[in-house]
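FORM 7B - TANDEM STRUCTURE REPORT

SECTION 1: FIRST PROTEIN
SEQUENCE AND TOKENS:
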Amino acid sequence: MGNTETASIPEDKWLAVLSNDGSYDGQWYYGVTTTGIFCRPSCKSKPPNRSHVRIFQTSRDALSERFRPCKRCKPVQQQLPDEEWEAQARAYIEAHYQEPLTLSHLADVLHLSPYHLQRTFKRLTGLTPAAYIQQIRIREAMKLLASTHLPVTDIAGQVGYTNAAHFTTRFQNVTGLTPTQYRGVKQQP
């Protein structure tokens, strides 16, 4: 039905996308051509550029044009329970802990608002996403320190710290030992 020309998107539908108006859910869907993802009008994702929006009457129309359903608003099924969001966040962190991970990046990947991600993750795990990332990084560093002879700076980089001094401070705050001290204790015969 829609195309990527701004003039073809009715103003009421554009305003519904901008305001996340749930009263239109199920009546139509919008796709974003630059991402290839389609959403419900109520989706809380970052507002797209209007010139990249296409309107679809049904989710099947969007799927038939090779748009993928949004992981956040689940336009072809019910939204995920909070426990599933939290599990997806943990799985993503565990798979990507070596990379620079920010709350905004995680929220974008999971199609959540940073506020909702932070609040939900902390409520379910007792930790903020940042504290969980640190926990994973320190755990992995402990394994490397105990099982390899890699320099501490290399280990810091491998577990996602760009600054070895910062890594050493974080490691000591968590374990009570510097990385070198920890290695000495764990590698003793």
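SECTION 2: SECOND PROTEIN
SEQUENCE AND TOKENS:
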Amino acid sequence: MKIKSQKDFFSGLMFLGIGIAFSWGATTYNVGEGARMGPGYFPLVLGIVMCILGAIMTLKATIVATEGGDPIGKWAWKPLFFIIAANLAFGVLLGGLPSIGLPPMGLIVGIYALAFIASMAGENFKVVPTFFLATALAIGSYIAFIWALKLQMAVWPTFITG
């Protein structure tokens, strides 16, 4: 067996690995059935679909030849760092970090931080478009999570709302 597309082969393995993890994790929840789904139903189905897609991609990578073998490039460290940092910052700002005395900053501040930090992962960071994107995300998130779903979470920093 010769790998004819490295990108597709390793992408397929990644899909298989994540699909297996989702499926395995779903077994700890009640799966239910199609008419009455339990909390484990969606992760189980998602994991199975990802496994199928991963198997197809991996198999295709050994059958269909690509020009030059479609080699894997080097790691994109800058985007990887900023995307992970943006998600960590969002989580910390949303819930606070009591161990260092940081109070919850709320949904709006967390979304602005998420948008600005994640946008630094790209090649050309621009403040004004990022501000408009963050504003649209903040408004949309407020409407979806606070107004429509009525989730109980801090919207603004605790020192503002009291």
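SECTION 3: OBSERVATIONS ON SECOND PROTEIN
The chain has a mean pLDDT of 90.
The longest helix spans residues 41-63.

SECTION 4: SIGNATURE
Preparer initials: ____
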